Structures are given as C-alpha cells and as structure tokens.
Amino acid sequence: MTEQLWRPSASMMALRERAHLLRKIRAYFDGQGVMEVETPILSSSATVDVYIDSFASEFTPIGHDQNQLCYLRTSPEFAMKRLLASGSGDIYSLGRVFRNGEAGGRHNPEFTMLEWYRVGMTDQTLMDDMSSLLSSICNYKEVRRVSYGELFENALGINPYLASDEELGSMVGERIDAKLQGLERNDCLDLLFSKFIEPELGGISEDGLEGCFVYDYPVTMSALARESLNKKGQPVSSRFELFINGVELANGYHELTDGDEQEKRFEDERIKRQQRGYDLYPYDQHMVDALKHGMPDCAGVALGIDRLLMLLLGANNIADVLAFDFQRA
What we know:
Layout: H1 12-32, E1 35-36, E2 42-43, E3 56-59, E4 68-72, H2 77-85, E5 91-98, E6 110-119, H3 123-137, E7 140-147, H4 148-156, H5 165-175, H6 185-196, E8 203-205, E9 208-217, E10 227-229, E11 235-244, E12 247-254, H7 259-276, H8 285-294, E13 298-304, H9 305-313
Parallel strand pairs: 1-5, 7-9
Antiparallel strand pairs: 2-4, 3-4, 5-6, 6-13, 8-9, 9-11, 10-11, 11-12, 12-13
Helix pairs in contact: 2-8, 5-6, 7-8
C-alpha cells in the first residue's frame, strides 16, 4: 500500500512536545528580559559561507518588467545584528530558516532555529547562559568544556592550529581514505573531527541530556567571530559548539564588531566560493554598515530546535519531529 503522504510525518505526541518546548523557551527568555524579535525571511542578500547554500527566488513587481533576485534566510543573524547596532539590547529569534541541498536524517531544507544575543557576554559566559536555558527546559547537565586543540591532541596527537596543510592532508589519507587528495585545510580538519572526535562528545543517560562544549576553534573556521589567544598564546577563534550524544546542536561566537574586518572576511569567503565553482551570493552590506556604525560587545548563538527535540524524544530522523517533512511539504 502506498504511503499516505497527506498525513503528518511526526506523531501527535511529538507535535505536542514540540509546542511545549517552544513555550518553555519563550518563558525562559521572558524571565531573563530578553526581547523576541522577528526578522525578514526574504532578503536581497544571502550567506557567503562556503559550506551553506541559499534558496533563491524572484520578486516581480506588478506593472514592472524588472525582477529582483531575493534569497530565503539561512539564519536571522545579519538582521539581528542590525537591531543590536540600533540599541535593541538582548534579543532572541525563534523561527524557520532555509538551507538548500540539506536533506537527510538530521537535515531538512526548512527547519527551526533559535538564535539569541547577549550584550556584554563572551563566548565563555554565553556557554553558561546556554546551559541555564537547557536546564530550564529539559533534563540537561553540562558534563564537559574542552578546547578544540586539546581534543585533537588527545585523539590524534596533532596540534590543529600549528599543523601544516600537508600534515593534515597526509593524516586524512592515512586515517580515513587514501583517495582524498588535495583537500583544503578546513575540509581536512572537519573530516578528522567528524570521524574521530565528534561521535564521543556528550551523551544521553537516565538523568537526561549531557552536553559537551568545544571552544577555541581555528581562526580559519569562523568568519563571524572575533579572534583571541588561547592559554598557550596561539591565535584562535572565540567560537564554541555544543554537542550532545555526538550530535552538533549549537554554534556560538563572541561576535566580531569590526565592520572593516567583517567586510574583508565576506570578500574572502566569496573568493573561496568562486574558486570552488559555487554560486556567488551578495553579502549583507546593511549588516556591515551596522558594524561600522557600532555594534555593542556581545555574544550570540544559534541552536537547532529540531535536533534538540530529536534528542529529547529519541528520534532517529528529523521527519519524526516535523509536522510535515520536505517529502510531504
């Protein structure tokens, strides 16, 4: 019998849990005095991240011949930073975002993202805030906070900040697949991390979710975070990620506030996309202008709501926590 695709992909129990989770998230931020904001879903600019592709559409004004190319947001980040530069104070957004080409067990082209910014916080204090949020909405505890470099040195005996491109490429060939040749530095690091480190990060126990924060990412892997020095005096990015049971759940930064530096990084990302033969997108000049005007010192983080619900319900497929997944949309 053919599957009845008119039916929801998630159970009614999962949808009720989803609604309950969203209410608790809003209650937490209300209690903290953090304002919920809405930002445009359709924009004249897009991400220039090498690893993210945007959906494109066209706006056709009635009575005019010239169409305007538009993009669905991959994150509310750029618009939220414009609000921060305008004096909004602490803010959060809870809504849908869109990423082209991403579909599978943990990915749906349309998904729900929670993103928030705290004025005066660093990446380290924002980790505290994230643990506070998760503890208030579910059975959660932070079990580890570890640097990216320490993980690589313990698992692979290599310093990811100082290792040459050749060393990383050789390790990928020896430890993963000899056919993988000529990869860029960040691709090598991502492959090694996902193969030998990520599966062991965080967990799930009878007491609930157990989170592991990884911080001090290489500077080449964070186009929107400020640079700092780690305990050994090595340049690192003020970026962190949260993992639970080997699943990447959140990505946060001590935000870059230098508009000139941000513009340079956007241009560098566009060059990387061009070298790889990817589509070229216009970056958000309004956001760059906002940074040049002056954005307050702050930290921000994005958390995948669908993945969090998957972990809470023990679901193996993102379709199990969506009312209608992409196949049914």
